[in-house]
Structure formats: C-alpha cells, structure tokens
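thought: fold this chain, then report.
action: predict
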Amino acid sequence: MDKNLELIKKRKFNRDISWEEIKKAIKNFEDKISKYYGILFYMLVVFIILFTLASIIKNKTNFYSEDLTFRWKNVLSYDDMLYSRDIYTVNQNYEEKVMHMCIHPFFDFMAQGVATIENMIFTNNNPTDHYYHIVLFQILINLIGVFYLYKILREEIGLKKIWCFLTITIYEIATVTLLGTFIIESFLISGTLLILSYYYLSKQKLVISTILGILVAGMCITNSIAFAIMAIFLLKDKKNILKVGVSCVVGFLLVMLILPYREYIFESFFNSIKTQKDTYTLDYGLVEFIKMAFYYIGASPIFFLNSIHIVTPAKGLDYFIFDLSSSKLVMIATIMFFIFILYNVIRNIKDRNMLAAFGVFVYNMFIHVILRFGLYEGTIYGLHYLFAEILMFAFGFKIKNKIIRRVFICFSILLLLVQIRYNMNGMLNLLLLFKDWK
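observation:
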C-alpha cells in the first residue's frame, strides 16, 4: 500500500511541469468556456441597461412607491402591489390568498425566501426599496432565461451566433418581457422555468427535468400541461417520458405536503379553479373577440401597443389602459411574423424541437383564445409562450431557399427596428407619465 502511494506521489507531484503543459492546460480551459464569451458579454450589457433603467424608475418616478394611486391592476391585471406587499414578505397572511396559492402553489413560499434573504442583506427597507429589489431579482431571472434561450438556439436548433443574438434581442425587447421584468409578477419566473425545462428535456437530463417540471407546476399550475407537451416531443425514449411524468406528479404532491399552507390548498383547490374560470373567462362579441385575440395574443406580447388611452375624469388623471389600436406598420409586422412562423412550422413539422415549441404555443392559444381564459390580459400570459414563438420564428434562419432566407433575414432586422421604435417609445411614455404622478 505504501509503495503504491509512493508511486502516485512520484508520478503526480515529483515531476517537473513544463511551460508547454501549463499553456496547453490554459488553452483547453479557454476552449471550453470560449463559446460562452459572447453571450456572457451580451448578458452583462443587458444587465447594465436594465439595472440603469430600474434605477431611473426608482429615483425619478413614483412607479415603485406605494403612494402612487395608479397601479397595473388598472392596465393589464399585474398585481404588483399585492406581490410586493403581501406575497414577497416574511409574514404572509395565507388565509387571504387562497386562490392565488391554489394556482401558484410554490410561489408564496419562494417569495418568503426571497424576502428573508432581502432582509438579511438590506436594513431599514422602505416599500419603494423593497419593490426595487424584487425588480432586480426579476432582472437576474430574465438573464438566466436569455442564457438558456441562447443555448437552445445554438445547440438544439443550430443557428449561427449572429442570428442567435438577433433572435434573443427580439425576445428581450418584446413588450411582455419589458413589462414582465419591471412589474412584479410570477409570469417571468414561470416563463424562465419553461425555457430551462425545454433545454434540459432536449438534453435528456431526466433528474434535472423532473425537478424543473415540479417547479413549473408549482409556479403556475396550468403550465404543467405545457411541460408535459415538451416532455412528449423532446424526450426520445417513451419510457423516459413515463418516468419523468410519474416523478413530477409524485414529487409535486410530496412538496405540497410540506408547504406551511397546504391545508388551504387541499381544501380549496377545485373551488378556486372554478372561481378562476368564472372570473377570467368572459364573453365577447365576435368583432371584439377577433380584435382582442389579435392585439392581446398576437401583437401585444411582441409589440408595445401604440396608443395609450388616458382616462381623465373631472378630478384629473385617474388611470389609463392600453387602447386596442396600433399603427399599420405594427399590424403588418405582426401578420408577417406569424406568416413566417406558419411557414417554418410546415417546413419543419417533423423536427422534435419545432413540435415541442408548436405544441406549447397551440396549448396556450387553446386556453386563452378558444376557451377565452384571461383573454383580456393575454399580454402578460405571453411570457408563458413567447419563447415558443421565438423558437418557431428562429427556424427561419435555417431556410435553404436563398431568396426566402434573405427576405426572412431582412424582415427580422425590420422587426427589431419596429420593436425599438414602438416598444422603447412606449416605455419612455410610461416613465414620463409616472414622473409627476402622485
């Protein structure tokens, strides 16, 4: 035994290491991480931009303040104050949020953890600072989603780096991503978990995929179907589909059993589901239905709706809503966007990556358009399927016909320019609106 140890020591520690070997080791390490240099730099730039914008909003507007009478509840049903005051808190009143907990079983528990960590890092938190810290947390979550979306585009779809960066920039400047980053809600976290699930299911990583599946269902119960669709199309072995499915169901129920508010969920789950259905499934006239389906499900997740309708009662500014109108350029760009998606789906219908993305998109269209669940707030639900739209659209960079491919590339650049024109201008108008709003 001693002789063997001596031999190991001689071989590993007593021989000289040349400069060539050291340089070779460094080179091997650089080669392994070099493929991520571009996306890491991109993420750093995005973080600086979003962090700066969040700081401006905090310091120059009343948007993060509880004193602001206007809230996103009046616009697109973002429950920002509910989240910052009653959910991202160490001491929650579970009894008041039963419906929320039934639809998002794990979210309140996660939010308690985030609030606990925040209190450990920051002292003398006021409501404005608290809101700001949660926004920074959401920015980091957003960047994780961007990183894995890039990996999917590179490793699974096989795009060149330049087209990956163009595609994820379209994703980042989309209305729903901008709003979801700066307004406190659960949608951004749910969307990021779906992106991670897509990636690890593609890689056939069963354990990680199972954990993600449990979290996906826990963050938004309806997204469990989206996860199941991705698992069916992305996992190559049918036995693995069954393994992941059963493990997710069992794991989800086990985690539910250890939640501090489990009795509220088990007692009220089915009643809460029915209440949600009755509350958010509204009847519309045919013309109004078509209009809302186009703008809220089609255009608004990608584009900032052009018109903001200010309601001005006798007492002055009260609240505003997004007007269901937009420029012809946005309408044309939206229609072209979906025409290219349809073309890509038809041309790549046998590709499992396309089938998974298309399945998630169709499922969301079914519940939000056919069943009309939450149709009027379809923009914010867009974070649950925007990544699928982006992936289906990205297949256009692989079009073999040179003429159509060039048209697609030109349109992609135009799409980004239209987004910058309307989405950036829309966010600027919001900031100006909030600047002196008390």
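thought: worth noting. The chain has one domain: 37-435.
final: tokens above.
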